[in-house]
């Protein structure tokens, strides 16, 4: 849960695109599609 929080903090801090966040989460072993991030926000 902590890594998920840090990824969403990246949205606010760095204004990352959803595809960038998808890549960051994949590096941390969390498989998610950028469209899922869009629908959860």
Question: What features would you describe in this structure?
Answer:
The protein is an all-alpha fold. It has one domain (2-40). Helix content is 73%, strand content 0%. The protein is built from 3 helices and no strands. The longest helix has 13 residues, at 2-14. The radius of gyration is 9 Å and the shape is globular.
**H/E element sequence:** HHH
Provide the residue-averaged pLDDT: 73
Task: Give unreliable regions as ranges.
Answer: none
Give the helix level as a range of percent.
Answer: over 70%
Straight-line N-to-C gap:
16 Å
| Largest beta-sheet details | none
**DSSP E strands, number:** 0
Number of domains: 1
Please tell me what the overall shape is: globular
């Amino acid at each position: 849960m902590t890594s998920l929080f840090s990824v969403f903090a990246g949205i606010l801090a760095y204004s990352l695109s959803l595809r960038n966040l998808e890549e960051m989460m994949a590096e941390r072993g969390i498989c998610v599609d950028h469209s899922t991030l869009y629908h959860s926000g």
